[in-house]
Specification:
By secondary structure, the protein is mostly helical. 84% of the residues lie in helices and 0% in strands. It is elongated and about 60 Å long. 14% of the residues are buried.
Amino acid sequence: AKKYNSITSFGKILDPIADKFLTLAAFLIFVYMGLIESWMVFFILVREVGVTFSRLRATLHGHVLAAESAGKLKTVTQIVTISFILAFLLLREWASINSSVGNFWNAGGPYWMSLIQVLMVVTLLLTVISGVMYFQSKKRQDV
């Protein structure tokens, strides 16, 4: 849309919703696969839905709420975590069909899942902190 300068109000609303949907879908699939804990995704989902609906409400009332640096850092962390988990899945699959990769993979065994859990904890903390900061900032603006 930016390339062709065809930015619309509908696009401004739909784009962040699509981003959240894709991110949450990835996390939910990882829960289903047993790679991450459901309670972590629950808190991420609550934050994302709450902030998104708040932003939509503000947009419908003619207010534009700029993204804060904490929210941007949260997004980067979520993308890095999702990318790492996808790389983990790719390597795990490759290790099952390639013995030299399989030896490396098996040597790292439990460490891969531990690293995923650490990334998820960092992602969860930044997601919750950025949500709290968003609502505190919004509350100050409303007063």
